[in-house]
UniProtKB/TrEMBL annotation, chain A:
SUPFAM superfamilies: Periplasmic binding protein-like II (SSF53850). PROSITE patterns: PROKAR_LIPOPROTEIN. Its main location: other. This is Probable sugar-binding periplasmic protein. It is found in: Cell envelope. Residues 1-23 form the signal peptide. Belongs to the bacterial solute-binding protein 1 family. The keyword Ion transport does not apply. One of its GO terms (cellular component) is cell envelope. Part of a binding-protein-dependent transport system for a sugar.
Automatic annotation (TrEMBL), chain B:
GO terms for biological process: transmembrane transport. The keyword Nucleotide-binding does not apply. It comes from Streptosporangium becharense. Keywords: Cell membrane, Membrane, Transmembrane, Transmembrane helix, Transport. The keyword 4Fe-4S does not apply. This is Glucose/mannose transport system permease protein. It is a multi-pass membrane protein. Residues 65-283 form the ABC transmembrane type-1 domain. Gene3D superfamilies: MetI-like (1.10.3720.10). GO terms for cellular component: plasma membrane. Its main location: membrane. Pfam families: BPD_transp_1 (PF00528). Belongs to the binding-protein-dependent transport system permease family. The lineage of its organism: Bacteria, Bacillati, Actinomycetota, Actinomycetes, Streptosporangiales.
From TrEMBL, chain C:
Residues 1-21 are annotated as: Disordered. Its main location: membrane. It comes from Streptosporangium becharense. The chain crosses the membrane at residues 32-53, 91-114, 126-147, 167-190, 219-237, 277-298. This is Glucose/mannose transport system permease protein. One of its GO terms (cellular component) is plasma membrane.
């Protein structure tokens, strides 16, 4: 009998622990866990964490990877990208990894408030030494460096710049509706939307709720003006005043011209490209989607099938966002991560990545010949325009604030109550103010 | 003691595992829910049930609870009814029963990571000329007036969200009921018929009462799936307020708002809501077993 | 069950009532009606599958919701080829996960169910109740402590055996999580199934001097097939299809198919036809399991069903 008990316990214990360890074919290492293979072998891998998996973005990453592997023959690029919801899934996964002290070697983050969340949590190592070594302070714009620094320490290497305040439109639809001038102010925009509505097309195409927040940031910038918009993110900002009320009423008016919400930004943008809708306000990643040949995009001709302008009221201002790579504290392969950051910071790396990704380089000295059509416009504006930071893409509001703004806009979409929206936004600013 | 000790030893590993992975986690969660740790860096001190009370002041929480109720009611009754109907139609044997069964069960085999996109296409809200998906189909079938906004409908959107869930689970319910029907001894039915019962009478007085346990276990399985529903909603609609439910809200609280205490509070409410379903069931089952 | 043509339909009104022509006609009518309704539902059930299938053969330019119902103008196998290429690295991981995972779960469930129904100890019912609560944890809520727990297990195993990264970031950790969170449902299914075995059989074995394990082996195990089928199907499906645990608990080298499937969608463009081909590809193994074990599945449900 006694032997039987022992057997019983042994059998089940085996079932639980040993079998689950062996059943899975032993430790594969990998992930955030320290790889089990011998040291020499483990040093080779550099785990690069991002949310770039689709056409365009992944191609850009691959181009940078090739440069990296050519320059560092002893290192292997290890792609740990997770797709979904503009990085939502990846960032959630990253948060757990960081809390468990098992960071990847380097990860992608939006420069600005989003990155400062990681900095405040003590997850990142400053990379000033890299800026000194490579003289990067001279090649990145000062405002960008400010956004990735805390108290004189710089915490990441920006690889690209996207523009958020772009209004895409279909010239043929505008002509048909009798809109002769591209609307430059909010009033002109509303008048144009009305004309398109009368002509029986969708005046403004829209996607899921986050694209409404994206619209909101452009409307706030256009209605408040650049300086007032930038003050919203500083101490003692005024979210409750009449200017904000007017801006939110503009938002309500513009949103009332929106068509049925599409599933995401791509189908919404496609309505413009297909001539079903007149306008769409979306970041300039839409350019790649419109322009790239089929399989990576819609293969449309710029200026005829689709055209662009700064979103109404924001001419002369570049609302930016930027992807950057970091050096997490406790990175398993720190040297490898530094080697990656060097490639990401280099002119060669940025010029390989950005034309494929459909963005402009963060460096001021990039080869401008590589950036044509829309990207040439963007490059020019980036050098001359006033700057403002994007809300939805992590520049001016940290994660918690952004989540609160998204919540307020989502509720507003259902009840259309401007006063309630304004008080929620003011509340969010008060409790999340940085 | 010699009699039962081996049994206890045999389940000991499971007890340890459940203690750590289930009760350890639940304890961690409840403790966190009773602190004011509203960001990732602060330590958090004990605040009692404060978070549980203040959650109700948030508009979004009210919305997500309403959504969960609509979703649960439509999904649970929809799947039960459809599963029962399919089982009833198949009960007496039908040509190709195996094929029918396999196809009705098939949706269970696919994850929403895979089918989310299709359902998003099918439940597109555009109507009339621009209609695609199911609205286009309805239009083509001459049922154009039945077009609606599906999960984007401001009032009953969550009822639409239950459609993919019903699609996935009603095959399982059908299998359960079919097994239940077949498990009713033929002698019982025969005896009732001899007593002059009509077919409906037989069904009503003999079969239905015997199906009660099946119905109940189906109810439990569906109920707890529906209160935890997350994959489906994120796959079809993402994290939008219009389809917000507590499980999605919890995700946002933990990973977007970086508010661990709030996330833990929502998780606690989900566990409590599920217990409301489950405890009566367990009490009922165990009491019945003891009686027999 | 598919031979309804040769033999008269299973027990029903026809056999019981007057075997007159009218009754037979009515039976035929009702059978026709039932078949029609079932076929209508069949078509409705297949709608999403139809869209998946036709889209998976379309070139990317044609794959759009507005053409969801149309057959491809140009048929292409390219999406399937790409889908296979992208899923392939994850398939072996999924197999390593789902096969041992469902077998270990079934073994554990069977032993627990046996003890909790036939070899009870004081408090067994309370324990069973406590077990069942494991089913109701909202997993997203405990992801952070779960990851930390597995990291600690990593450190313990490293100290004990020198192997690092055994649990967190690798398949065994994911397997462990699935097996543990699967204990409640597996125990429930087996317990409900074993309750139907008459106690006298167990008593008889015991009188013959058989101990707990021998009784299990000689009396209980031989009749457990259907319950094993139910549990294996259930666990295999949830292990194979799980995304949440997979992406949080493993690393890129050990990602299973669902994570690869998720990664086909990009932030820029979504290659729909590849995504749908991959969705179908990824569900083939579960389909095979359903077909292989389907007959036992019904039998297992039937045996356990009336016990709730």
């Amino acid at each position: 009998m006694r032997r039987q008990w022992m057997a019983a316990v042994a059998v089940t214990m085996a079932g639980l622990l040993t079998l689950s360890a062996c059943g899975g074919g032993g430790g594969d290492g990998g992930g955030g866990g320290a790889p089990q293979s011998p040291q020499a072998d483990a040093r080779k891998k550099v785990e690069v964490f991002s949310w770039w998996t689709g056409p365009g973005e992944a191609d850009g990453l691959k181009a940078m990877r090739e440069i990296f592997e050519k320059q560092n023959t002893g290192l292997e690029f290890f792609d740990a990208a997770v797709a979904g919801g503009s990085g939502d899934k990846a960032r959630a996964l990253l948060a757990t990894k960081l809390q468990a002290d098992t960071p990847p070697d380097t990860f992608q983050g939006h420069a600005g408030a989003e990155l400062q969340g990681y900095i405040k949590a003590g997850d990142l190592e400053p990379v000033n030494f890299l800026y000194d070594e490579l003289k990067l302070r001279d090649v990145f714009p000062q405002q960008l460096i400010d956004q990735i620094s805390v108290q004189g320490q710089i915490y990441s290497v920006p690889v690209n710049i996207h523009r958020s305040n772009v209004m895409w439109f279909n010239p043929a639809v505008l002509k048909e509706a009798g809109v002769t001038e591209v609307p430059a102010t909010i009033e002109e925009f509303v008048a144009a939307l009305e004309k398109v509505k009368k002509a029986g097309k969708i005046p403004l195409s829209i996607g899921s709720e986050w694209t409404m927040v994206h619209l909101l940031e452009s409307v706030l910038l256009g209605s408040l003006g650049t300086d007032a918009y930038n003050r919203l993110w500083t101490a003692g900002s005024d979210w409750s005043g009449p200017a904000m009320t007017k801006a939110l009423n503009d938002f309500k008016t513009i949103l009332s011209y929106a068509g049925d919400p599409a599933d995401d930004w791509q189908p919404a943008a496609k309505q413009v490209a297909d001539g079903q809708a007149a306008f769409n306000i979306m970041g300039d990643w839409a350019y790649g989607y419109f322009h790239n040949p089929p399989d990576g995009g819609l293969g449309k001709t710029s200026k005829t099938d689709f055209d662009w302008a700064p979103s109404p009221g924001t001419g002369g201002t570049f609302m930016w966002l930027s992807d950057s790579f970091t050096l997490p504290k406790g990175a398993p392969n720190r040297d490898g991560a530094v080697a990656w950051l060097k490639v990401a910071a280099s002119k060669e790396g940025q010029d390989a990545f950005n034309p494929k990704k459909g963005s402009i380089p963060a460096r001021k000295d990039a080869d401008s010949g590589l950036y044509t059509d829309y990207l040439a416009d963007a490059l020019k504006d980036w050098g001359s325009d006033k700057l403002a930071g994007s809300i939805q893409h992590g520049v001016v509001a940290n994660d918690a604030w952004r989540a609160a703004i998204n919540e307020a806009v989502g509720i507003f979409h259902a009840d259309k109550d401007v006063a309630a929206l304004q008080s929620s936004l003011a509340e969010a600013a008060k409790s999340s103010g940085q | 003691m010699r009699r039962w000790l081996p049994g206890l030893l045999l389940v000991t590993p499971s007890i340890i595992a459940i203690a750590v992975f289930v009760y350890g986690m639940l304890g961690w969660n409840f403790r966190l829910a009773m602190t004011d740790k509203h960001d990732e860096v602060s330590e958090g001190s004990f605040v009692g049930l404060e978070n549980f009370v203040t959650l109700w002041d948030q508009k979004r929480w009210g919305i997500s609870v309403d959504h969960a109720i609509v979703f649960t009611v439509v999904f649970v009754f929809g799947a039960l009814l459809l599963g029962w109907l399919l089982a009833l139609l198949m009960e007496k044997g039908i040509r190709g029963e195996g094929t029918f069964r396999a196809i009705y069960l098939f949706p269970m085999a696919i994850s929403f990571v895979a089918t989310g996109v299709v359902w998003r296409w099918l439940m597109n809200s555009a109507q009339g000329e621009r209609a695609v998906g199911l609205n286009r189909l309805l239009d083509g079938l001459g049922l154009g007036s039945f077009q609606w906004g599906w999960f984007r409908d401001p009032d009953w959107g969550m009822a639409a969200m239950a459609v993919p869930a019903i699609w996935q689970m009603s095959g399982y319910v059908m299998a359960l009921f079919l097994a239940g029907f077949r498990g009713v001894p033929e002698e019982l039915r025969e005896a009732a018929r001899v007593d002059g019962c009509t077919e409906w009478g037989v069904y009503r007085h003999i079969v239905l009462p015997l199906l009660r346990p099946v119905t109940l276990s189906a109810l439990i399985i569906l109920g707890h799936i529906s209160l935890k529903v997350f994959d489906l909603i994120v796959a079809v609609s993402g994290k939008q307020i219009i389809t917000d439910v507590p499980a999605v809200f919890m995700w946002v609280a933990v990973f977007d708002s970086h508010d661990p205490a709030k996330g833990a509070t929502i998780a606690s409410y989900i566990v409590l809501a599920v217990s409301v379903f489950v405890i009566p069931y367990l009490v009922w089952t165990l009491r019945r077993e003891r009686r027999s | 069950m598919t031979t309804a043509t040769k033999t008269p339909p299973a027990p029903g009104p026809v056999r019981a009532a007057d075997p007159g022509a009218r009754a037979r006609r009515r039976a035929r009518l009702s059978r026709g009606l039932r078949l029609t309704v079932l076929l209508v539902f069949l078509v409705v059930f297949l709608i999403p599958i139809y869209v998946l299938l036709v889209t998976s053969f379309k070139p990317l330019t044609e794959a759009d919701p507005s053409r969801a119902w149309a057959l491809p103008e140009v048929w292409t196998f390219e999406p399937w080829r790409v889908a296979w290429e992208k899923l392939a690295p994850g398939i072996w991981n999924s197999v390593l996960l789902a096969v041992p995972g469902s077998l270990i779960s079934a073994a554990l469930g069977s032993m627990n169910g046996y003890v909790l129904s036939k070899w009870r100890f004081p408090g067994a019912d309370v324990l069973f109740t406590l077990f069942l609560f494991g089913m109701f944890i909202p997993y997203q809520g405990v992801m952070i402590p779960l990851v930390q727990l597995l990291v600690e297990l990593n450190e313990i195993t490293r100290d004990l055996t020198g192997a690092s990264g055994v649990f967190y970031g690798a398949i065994p950790g994911l397997l462990l999580a699935h097996v543990v969170y699967g204990i409640p449902i597996c125990t429930l299914i087996f317990r409900n199934y074993y309750v139907t075995i008459p106690d006298e059989l167990i008593e008889a074995a015991r009188v013959d001097g058989a101990g707990m394990l021998r009784t299990y082996r000689s009396v209980v195990l031989p009749v457990s097939g259907p319950a094993f089928a139910v549990v294996v199907i259930w666990q295999f499906t949830s292990l194979w299809n799980d995304f949440l645990f997979a992406v949080f608990l493993t690393g890129p080298q050990s990602w299973p198919t669902t994570v690869m499937l998720n990664n086909i969608a990009g932030a820029q463009t979504v290659p729909y036809s590849q995504q749908m081909a991959a969705a179908l590809l990824a569900s083939i193994p579960t389909m095979i399991i359903y077909v292989l074990l389907g007959r036992f599945f019904m039998r297992g449900l039937m045996a356990g069903a009336l016990k709730g």
